Automatic annotation (TrEMBL):
It comes from the Bacteria. InterPro entries: C-N_Hydrolase_sf, Rossmann-like_a/b/a_fold. Gene3D superfamilies: Carbon-nitrogen hydrolase, HUPs. The lineage of its organism: Bacteria, Bacillati, Actinomycetota, Actinomycetes, Micromonosporales. It comes from Dactylosporangium salmoneum. This is CN hydrolase domain-containing protein.
Length: 325
């Protein structure tokens, strides 16, 4: 059997992907769990193309031939679509080293079932969740025979039980950085640009560089309360750098409010948020989103070192000022 794994985003042009697979002689095309309802996929494929296995966001899985459903034995998350072939139709969010767990899980199922097992995963962002693809195929003996690259759409075609492309894995840091970029692009899709705080801390600098990589420096506005908090980062990255002193605004609040304890300590951050949100509203940019999304500080430091080393490897200036490391 010639199998095609369509590692796509949540809302692909399924007829185009199926046509590409058919042009390469595929007898079965497998899609991940899509945002498209299965009946909509069936309508698009009516009367043409190879057999298609597809899942939807609600958890349903169907095997379609020329758009019409045909019997498909689904046991848990695996579908038996041909003798000796099990397929997992997935939408598994990215986690650092999750690709290792995915390979181990599918290898275990292959060994237990005595079948070739293929796993197809989404790629891209959806509602703040990031998917890295990493679709793969393993033999019953656990041998990996095909694997799609991470974070890119790919049609992976192979003849079973032979082997196909095996894309190299990204390092943990490279994969995490890619995930942060994809997540920000997804969140900023409606705006195309973002406003971020520059506080003079490492986490803010890393967030700004992620945004520059994801959207381009011209689409990133970095706002600092003091010029020293972001001037060098702006020079290194080319982002739109602005200084908006917040202390006079904080003083104005304190002249009219009596605050103490935690409320007083959080006031500067709240004022900064108002400034960033107002600038974003004025210019139609995204604000209030943290590109790092709660990444632990230890990983932030690793990502900063990795990103600077990558720049130096390419003969570019390191984007993150060394004094922040």
């Amino acid at each position: 059997m010639r199998l095609a794994l369509a590692q796509t985003g949540p809302s692909p042009a399924v007829e185009s992907w199926a046509a590409r697979a058919a042009a390469q002689g595929a007898e079965l095309v497998v899609f991940p769990r899509l945002d498209l309802p299965i009946d909509a996929v069936a309508e698009r494929l009516a009367g043409r193309g190879p057999a298609v296995l597809v899942g939807d966001r609600a958890g349903s899985v169907a095997l379609l031939r020329h758009g019409a459903p045909v019997p498909c034995d689904v046991d848990g998350s695996f579908a038996a679509v041909a003798e000796g072939l099990l397929v997992h139709v997935g939408a598994e969010p990215f986690e650092v080293r999750a690709d290792d767990d995915r390979l181990e899980r599918l290898s275990r199922v292959a060994a237990e079932s005595g079948a070739v097992v293929a796993g197809v995963n989404l790629v891209g962002g959806r509602d703040g969740v990031v998917f890295d693809g990493d679709s793969l195929v393993v033999r019953p003996d656990g041998a990996l025979i095909a694997r799609a690259p991470q974070f890119v759409e790919r049609l992976l075609v192979l003849d079973l039980p032979g082997s196909g492309e095996i894309a190299p894995r990204l390092s943990d840091e490279a994969a995490a950085w890619q995930a942060l970029e994809v997540g920000l692009r997804d969140r900023a899709r409606a705006h195309g640009s973002v406003v971020l705080p520059l506080t003079g801390r490492l986490d803010a600098a890393v967030a700004a560089v992620v945004a520059c990589d994801a959207l381009g420096p011209a689409n990133v506005v970095g706002v600092a309360a003091r010029a020293d908090d972001g001037r060098e980062l702006a020079l290194r990255t080319g982002l739109d750098f602005r200084v908006e002193p917040i202390q006079p605004m904080v003083d104005s609040f304190l002249a009219n409010l009596t605050l103490g304890g935690a409320a007083l300590g959080r006031l500067p951050d709240r004022v900064r948020g108002v400034v960033l949100g107002s600038l974003a509203d004025q210019e139609g940019r995204l604000s209030g989103h943290d590109p790092l999304g709660g990444v632990p500080s230890a990983l932030v430091a690793r990502l900063a070192r990795w990103r600077n080393e990558e720049a130096e490897r390419r003969g570019e200036e390191a984007p993150i000022p060394p004094y922040l490391m």
